[in-house]
Design brief:
Main location: cytoplasm
Distance between the termini: 33 Å
Pfam families: B-prop_COPA_B_2nd, COPI_C, TPR_COPA_B, WD40
Strand order of the largest sheet: 24-25-26-27-31
Function: The coatomer is a cytosolic protein complex that binds to dilysine motifs and reversibly associates with Golgi non-clathrin-coated vesicles, which further mediate biosynthetic protein transport from the ER, via the Golgi up to the trans Golgi network.
Low-confidence stretches: 133-154, 787-874
Radius of gyration: 43 Å
Mean pLDDT: 82
Number of strands: 59
Structural class: alpha+beta
Number of helices: 31
Largest sheet: 5 strands, mixed
Shape: globular
Strand content: 25-35%
Subunit structure: Oligomeric complex that consists of at least the alpha, beta, beta', gamma, delta, epsilon and zeta subunits.
Keywords: Cytoplasm, Cytoplasmic vesicle, ER-Golgi transport, Golgi apparatus, Membrane, Protein transport, Repeat, Transport, WD repeat
Amino acid sequence: MKTINVWFFLGPVRGIAFHPTQPLFVSGGDDYKIKVWNYKTRKCLFSLNGHLDYVRTVFFHHEYPWILSASDDQTIRIWNWQSRTCIAILTGHNHYVMCAQFHPKEDLVVSASLDQTVRVWDISGLRKKNAAPSSVSFDDSLHKSAATQADIFGSTDAIVKYVLEGHDRGVNWATFHPTLPLIVSAGDDRQIKLWRMNDAKAWEVDTCRGHFNNVSAALFHPRQELIISDAEDKTIRVWDMSKRTLVQTFRREHDRFWVLTAHPELNLFAAGHDNGLIVFKLERERPAYAVHQNSLYYIKDKYLRVFDFASNSDVSVLSVRKIGGQYMQPRSLSYNPAERAVIITTTADGGSFDLFHLPKEFNGEPREASDGKRGPGTSAIFIARNRFAVLDKARQQIEIRDLSNATTKSVKPSATVNEIFNAGSSNLLLLSTPTSVILYDIQQRQVVSEINTPPVKYVVWSSDHSQVALLGKHTITIANKTLEESCLIHETIRIKSGAWDDGGIFVYSTLNHIKYALSQGDNGIIRTLDQPVYLTKVKGKNVHCLDRDGKTRVISIDPMEYRFKLALIKRNYDEVLQIIRSSNLVGQAIIAYLQKKGYPEIALHFVRDDKTRFDLAVECGNIEVALETAKAMDREDCWNTLGVEALRQGNHQIVEMAYQRVKNFDRLSFIYLVTGNLEKLKKMLKIAELRNDHMSRFHNSLFLGDVEERVRLLKEVGQLPLAYLTAQSYGLVEEAEAILTSAGLTADDITDMPTNGQLLKPPTPILKHPDSNWPLLTVQRSFFDSAFITTDSNPLAAPLSFNDTNEGLDDVGGDWGGDDDLGFNGATEKAVDDLRIDGEALEEGSGWDIDADLNVQLNNEISQELSNGTHGEFVPPTSGTNESELWIHNSPLAADHVAAGSFETAMQLLNRQVGAVNFEPLKSHFLKTFQATRTYLSCNVSLPPLVYYIRRNPEEIETRRVLPILPYNFQNIVSSQLQEAYKTTTLGKFQDATIQFRNILHSILLISVSKKSEVDEVNQLIEVCREYIVGLSMEQMRRKYPLDSPENTKKALELAAYFTHCRLQPAHLQLSLRSAMTLNYKAKNCLTASMFARRLLELAPPQQVATQARQIQTLSDKTPRDEITLDYDQYNPFNVCGISNIPIYKGSSSVECPYCHASYLPEHQGKLCTVCDVSQIGANSTGLKV
């Protein structure tokens, strides 16, 4: 919830109203100003000044850009919030005007004042005055002249139609009924009055009395015959509109109520009081239902209905209007299949139940429930073929009754019981207490088991009664049939219902999600919901449910995620592998889950991020993938980690490569020592000398047994005693004497020589195999590793061909290259391709070709020593990555994959993103995109031309970001193709225009945009093309109907009417309205023709068209009736089915095309969309990426 802090008012705010479609609200208060706000930007847009006293109420008009305000200055003002001007002032009240509201459909305003009157105002003149401009005829000019004369004495835009007098004191509130010609008013005389009106007069119908203080507000229930009022007597009261009797009272102890409103769509009401507000509902919205096998028994509109899941048949069986009351919904339902009986419980009279037997046949009209048995009880359920249990909560007693409603046994439980539920056996009951659920044996009268849970509201058993889900307000406890807990799941929002899948997975719904829960405690989201639903059955990819209106619905879900997790838990690896290959499970959540459960090798299959792939590969011991990703990232920490893991497995070749990449020279020297690679040890000695690292140089000379090098090093660093001692110990007499001479000493001066010293001799490796690995540690290959190695086509996950045998690497050749690829005439030299010598980096790909660099940098003596007359072998350069492969790796866009020539992956992407299944219309677009990204340069006649790839970001030098040029450009489509399609539409070439708009839809699939704002524009363009294709298709279909029969005429008129509701450009909308107006007028549908004429005039058409429309409107108003009744409701929003051309009104079930979002009736799910001609209707998709 967002809070907008208001600093702009100089006093209290008395009235607030939200716009029905725009992100706006208007406020009025004691500073005499009306302010219009944008609640998204949380800013005040502007103020309207004109009132001279407090502003009491403000309201938006449902259609026009008008605001209605009522003030203590005894006036009502109508403002145009677009032009920010006052367009009408309604005067006539002689005291404060407490409230003024627009009629929801007609050109009327009702106002309430402290002058004890309610006034109804006619503002049709104001509407006509603000309608579309038109040419003025002679008669119109005379009428306008007369109107000008009338304005001298008062405005004729809004006139008083009725003055309703009947209240004894001031009137605080008045409002219209949403559909009936009724008005309700509330006043300080503590009365609520109901008024009726017609075209000629208005009169008082009745008065509702019962409040003990001033009545602040009253309104009509949007969907039931109820009136709701609140007052300063601290109560909210509900009245029966037909009987004018009190139905229910809600009382608050310390707060007076001042205002009241209803939600425009939901069954919610809000009332403001002294210290805040309360939001409440009048009735229980959860329908009472029970499921048995393939049948759903539920209550809707006071009828017991049976829905068959297999055949989708829904029949009304029994009338239960006498149960509870007119405004009290049944609470629960229990079904007995053996006796075909039901028990329905309600909260009437403190709780009661009714037992009915259902008819054997469900054909015909539902019969009245006349032979029922009734009794007191808050809960009642069947527990056997001829027995049911009833809970008397007040007495805390459970009665067992037979089907004649006679008590056969009474049980008094030891704990306080709130609810009783079926336990799956004839002698068992589940008792819900405030802190636990008890499994109770009725026969033995003892507790079998007990589980501690928060208060449980509903119980759902699996089909085999092996598991049970205990649903609380915010918790789900899953247990077995003996109430041994498997898991406890907490939700932050309210849990509404649940049902078991055939595989043993519990699927449940919250206020805004459908979720799943495994018995081990894992849970997740399946899909989001617009409105809460109550699940009844889960079957495959469909969830059967009831909505709050009691309508049966089928919601499509993707069960792959929870089936995947269940297969993992059950170790059904074949099913896991099948799901991996056939589904598109992605996301960090599934990766984290697999890591948590100990399946990193499976998670490795889903990951594309190099760092995550590296961590997973190390975790599961996949050294090949770890090496590949380490090369791609080239980070020091990754090479260190790889070295540790490779050393653990005994793969010293990869250890060597890792040490080379991070320049860990000391460890490299040691690895060369233990593998007996003396040649590389000598090179390490030279590198240490170049680096001026004396300790490394000493260690390497020690490892090599090079005494002369050690003596020379000790002399260079000034350690002459150690140098002498070393030379003398190893028998280098001449070198020892030279050291003494340089120090000015003789042999006689050295007296304290050690006598028991031993020569330092490096150990000799038993097995010298520098070019092959040690026997590797066996890393157990899982079921999935084997499967992925043979089938995974992901290039990043392709394993390297390192074998456990010595000849494994020796046999590698051809395109893979041999040992020479690594540089040191062995298997590892190529890896250190960025080794630095004296701060200079070696060139890319040079590996450890140290000889060449040393020839440049070392002196002639060292160069001569290193060369030794040997010749290196020729190493052919490795081929680079193909440009088109870079495009595939760099982009998730289908267009870039098409440009790279990978049509198959492009089609897979389009299938996932927009549910594309028909690629035939895209063939020419694919070929054009592919050809546009390449240019060819001819060389010799006998040679093929050179191919040059054209990039859309030629300045980019990083290969990971290069992308191909695309022939389809969004701006060009809008400025060229779209305008051409508009022009064709204007010319009336509907078939050609349809092809052009559909071609635009196909082109959009292969474009790329760089700004987020352009993404929104692309979606708008898709919507424009869809509306035009649907509309033009209907118009072409209409022209095929000859007007030679009432049926054909009716269908043609309906299609013309539907065409006018497509969101077209104003010029084209005028043409569609003109066509519909003319057709209806010729068919003598005068009422409908007049409506189309009015809509046409609102669009400010050309003078000739406007004159014709007024003439038709004038003639039609004389005989306002239709000769042909159309299936068309202009006031109820609808979409048109793209196949059957049948309107789908708001609230009706429908399916959509995942690409163009065209609407279709549910029976067309799975068919090809006729609008875009590409996608499958109702297919799951992730959304188009551009």
